[in-house]
Amino acid sequence: MIVEVVTGAEERPEARLVDVDELGRLHLALGQVTDEEAAEVLEQAGLGRLADGDTALLDVTALRAAAESRATTPDWQARWDEMIGAARTKGWLSEDGATLQVQIESAAGA
Fold first, then answer.
1. Rg of the chain on CA atoms, in Å
2. Which parts of 8-106 are beta strand (E)?
3. Domain around 28
4. What is the mean pLDDT of residues 77-91?
């Protein structure tokens, strides 16, 4: 799954989820937006916040709610739980399970 922050309609940055059925990898992809724009859009969307230039902290509940409604694979919930469990073992999940640390990458074509 990819959380993208890219320039959308009317050249305004927007957050969107893509590849919601691909739960083997999760990251934040930034298009041609500034860190400030990305931070603002993530927070306005309720999806999370930037931790620094390399990582973001995504809200697990908001991310699941946004992705689950668009999922098409029948075992999506089980695979989501596996992804969260793996993140916990790697130290990427906060102690309370509320936020997930992900890498920031450049969006394709950015």
1. 13
2. 13-18, 27-30, 48-50, 55-59, 99-106
3. 2-106
4. 96
Q: Are 17 and 1 in contact (CB under 8 A)?
A: yes
Read off the tokens for 33.
């937006």
Its pTM stands at 0.90
The confidence score (pLDDT) of residue 108 equals 63
Which of these, 10, 45, 13, lies nearest to 31 by C-alpha position?
13
Total domains in the fold of the chain: 1
The answer on pLDDT for 15 being more than 80 is yes
d(CA 101, CA 14): 20
Dig out the tokens for 65 from the structure. Answer: 């709610």
| Mean pLDDT on 13-29 | 94
| Contact between 92 and 101 (Cβ < 8 Å) | yes
